[in-house]
Amino acid sequence: MRATGVDLSLALLADAARRRAGSLFRADMRALPFAGESFTVLVNFFTSFGYFESEQGNLMVIEEIARVLRPAGRFLIDLINPLSAVSPVPESLRAEGPFEIREERWFDDETRRINKRINLLDTVSGENRRYRESVRIYEQEELLSILSPSGLGVEKICGDFEGGDFHADSPRMVLYGARS
User: Fold this and answer.
1) What value, to the nearest 5°, has the Cα angle with vertex 50 and ends 148 and 133?
2) Would 64 be classed as within a structural domain?
3) Are residues 129 and 141 located together in one domain of the fold?
4) Order of strands, sheet of 99-108, starting from the edge strand that comes earlier in the sequence
5) How far apart are CA 142 and CA 82, in angstroms?
6) Cα dihedral: 170, 103, 108, 132 (round 10)
7) pLDDT of 41-68, one tens digit each?
8) Using the 8-state DSSP alphabet, how is residue 141 labeled?
9) What is the pTM of this model?
10) 3-state secondary structure of 139
11) Quick check: 95 pLDDT over 90?
C-alpha cells in the first residue's frame, strides 16, 4: 500500500514529511493534482469537508473525490457530529508546553457553520497569535443527497473510528462508502 497526502498548509506537510508519511502534495482539494480513477481508497479526516464559504466550493470537493476514485473505490469522510455541533462548548482554555490556548466557539444557525476563534499566547516570548476557523455543518440526510449525484454511495455511518453506532452523543460522524 502506498499512502499519498494532500494539504494546502506547508506547515502540516512539513510535519507529515518528518513522520515519513509517504508521497505528499501541496494542493487545493477542489482541484486535486491526480489523474481520474487514480486511487482505490480516499480518506478525508478531521472535518476537512465544509471549510469553503461557498456551497459550490464544498461540492467541488465531493466531485474531486468521485473523479480520483476508481470504480468501486472506497472512501471515508470524517466529520464533526452535526447533532452536537449546534451546541458547542462556548469557551475553553488549556496549556500545551509554553502556550496558553484560548478557544471561543459558536454556531451560526443561518449559515449552518461552527466558528472558532483561537488565541495562542506564547507565555515565554509574550507573542500572541490569533486564528479563525469556520466549517459548514452538514446533517446526515443532506450529505447523502450531496454524495449520491457524484456516484458516491454511503454504506455505513458510524459515530467514532471504532465503528460504534452513530447517535446524538457520538463524537464524530464517519461515513464509509464506495464509488459506483
Assistant:
1) 170
2) yes
3) no
4) 91-96, 99-108, 113-122, 128-136
5) 11
6) -120
7) 999 999 999 999 999 999 999 999 999 9
8) H
9) 0.89
10) coil
11) yes
